[in-house]
């Protein structure tokens, strides 16, 4: 499964934003404008950036809408994605700027950041749905993690997120359980 660069970039930005929500540890990782700035360093957006409390609140406000995309199947995602596109007044257009080749922007540069994030994520999910690759939209299999990810592995076998050490931790736990059974 290979998506074009801007689709992968928008999916990654959505994953990073959703994973700022409080998880099992209860920690919200997007509470300050400094944390929003950190998010924007990893997930850059062109256009107007206000970097103020109102923008932070708006971006925080879309996280649950994006998280909902990981709680449904392909058919369930369609109305959510369509609603995001309608709410953002999406009007896809080909653009070229900076070091990027031709790609799609579906909002204007002066649209609020939260709108741009939401619409770009929705556009990326359009590609996932159309490619019939929604089974790669996943929640971590670790017992103590609910982080989301997109499985880009060749054979679609990834089970754990990249936010922590979930895969190693679960493998160690399984090993310890096996050893405990052997010695019992």
From TrEMBL:
It comes from the Bacteria. This is CGNR zinc finger domain-containing protein. InterPro entries: ABATE, ABATE_dom_sf, Znf_CGNR. It comes from Microbacterium allomyrinae. Pfam families: ABATE (PF07336), zf-CGNR (PF11706). Residues 136-179 form the Zinc finger CGNR domain. Signal peptide: none annotated.
């Amino acid at each position: 499964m290979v998506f074009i660069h801007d689709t992968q970039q928008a999916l990654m930005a959505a994953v990073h934003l959703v994973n700022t929500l409080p998880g099992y540890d209860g920690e919200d990782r997007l509470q300050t404008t400094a944390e929003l700035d950190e998010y924007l360093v990893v997930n850059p957006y062109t256009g107007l950036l206000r970097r103020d409390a109102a923008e932070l609140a708006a971006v925080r406000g879309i996280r649950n809408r994006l998280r909902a995309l990981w709680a449904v199947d392909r058919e369930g995602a369609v109305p959510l994605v369509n609603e995001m596109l309608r709410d953002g007044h999406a009007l896809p257009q080909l653009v070229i700027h900076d070091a990027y080749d031709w790609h799609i922007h579906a909002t204007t540069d002066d649209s609020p950041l939260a709108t741009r994030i939401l619409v770009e994520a929705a556009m990326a999910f359009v590609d996932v749905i159309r490619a019939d690759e929604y089974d790669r939209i996943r929640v971590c299999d670790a017992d103590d993690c609910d982080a989301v990810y997109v499985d880009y592995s060749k054979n679609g076998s990834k089970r754990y997120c990249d936010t922590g050490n979930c895969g190693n931790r679960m493998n160690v736990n399984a090993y310890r359980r096996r050893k405990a059974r052997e010695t019992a």
